[in-house]
Write a structure and sequence with these properties.
Elements lengths: L6 H21 L5 H6 L6 H33 L1 H19 L5 H13 L3 H12 L5 H30 L1 H22 L15 H7 L3 H19 L2 H11 L6 H10 L1 H19 L1 H19 L5 H28 L6 H53 L1 H9 L1
Amino acid sequence: MSRQRAPWEKALFVLWFGCFMVGIAFSEIMPFLSLYVDTLGKFSKAQLNLYSGLTFSATYLVAAIASPIWGRLADQKGRKLMLLRASLGMAFVFGLMGVVTNVWQLIALRFTQGIFSGYISNANALMATEAPKEKSGQALGTLVTGIVTGNLLGPLLGGVLADMFGYRITFIITGFILLSVFFLTFFLVHEDFKPVAKKAMLSTPAVIKKLLRPQLVVGMFVTTLIIQISNNSINPILSLYVREIMHHHGNIALISGLVASIPGVANVIAAPRLGRLGDRIGTDRVLLIGMAFAILVYIPMAFVTNVWQLVGLRLLVGISDAAMLPAVQTLLAKNSPAAVTGRVFSWNQSFQNVGMFLGPMLGSVISGGFDYGGVFISTSILVVVNIIWVGFNTAPLRAERRQN
């Protein structure tokens, strides 16, 4: 007879699906976003580039600003309410994107999408407080696979849906899926929440004082930023790099989608296992190992001679992501009191959004000056800086283990 699952385990299934769908929703429109913009008017090439850039960046800029506001409200009203607010808001925004008549309506909705951010950070915060501490690494490791896999599979799925149904119907389909996330969260996710009274809400300096290791937590924010810059710096040039490797012959679009999506396979398999490993040997150790592995993977990407070498290395990127991203979330959870967990995870979400905004810009600039291979080399250098930073910030954890 199978054992009865605990409420937090049931919530984990629902929140994984929610994070997966939010990840897809945010990433699936990227392959055809500029093409959709092009259908909304007659633009010059310069205008199309400008409007596409505005449409892409608007969401992440607004989300970076809005996340701390929603995090403060989450500590006061509960994380489940914030999950419902984000999923319902995004469902309507995506549906409306499918019926816009000009580019400014689309840009306005992309701004609004950023306002309805916070599903990911609040899902992490809810699991961090609901799951037993000894299971937090496993739970958050599983949860992170949802957003990462959604982000990586989104472009491939978006391209398929757009090809089958057109751009507008793809937005509307996504809206209905996000609406299902709202109802699943409403009916199946339970939160044992003890609200923080508005008068008792802590200021930012007071929240930092509440942290068990404030330097470590701030260090994890910076680590999140660098991880996202590293991951996203490759996005603008990936399909162009594939085209160059394939000498402009073959099914470049399909292969590019495969190259972009393949890390998701490794991530789904590796993240829960690495989360459990972190619970046993120390999450900080898994994080450092993941970063060292990332450096070993990024450098050869600059020198591949065929697309299958790139596919193999991208598969290994999924393993390094599975080590790094859940480890950061777990370290934040284990070093944040429950009363301020929502605030901490929302701050981390802001750093993540800034990284997702800066990464493509960095990749575009470097590829313009040093060709595509330069992006992978610069990313490796960035990870080297990060591993030194994390080693310094997690040193007290290793010192404690030696004493015990």
